[in-house]
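User: Hey, quick favor. My workstation is busy. Could you predict this chain's structure for me?
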Amino acid sequence: MALTFYWYPNCGTCKKAKKWLDDNKVDYTSIHIVDETPSKEKLLDLIEVSDLPAKKFFNTSGKKYRELNIKDKIKDATIDEMTTILASDGMLIKRPIVTDGQKVTVGFKEETFNENWLQK
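Assistant: No problem, here it is.
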């Protein structure tokens, strides 16, 4: 089954992840995370499947995150409020996000990709 790869083409981490997927001949469909920002419902689903806290889905090193003072806005936010914020702008979402519907990874670490996305 093909993976879904949410990415931003100008992102260095995304480029590394894409190269890893290509080098390992992993089948995927890429989605530009800014042009096609995942819906609130999709983000809720990804967070649920990932077992990660919703805060892990924020691009904390991003310019928009700092400009909009998101850190303070999400300190006591509910998951519903956090996904509303994430769905409002793809630049706020940590990337890449990769999923097969059963698992989700956020960001790129070669070790994590080897564990999750190499065909065994």
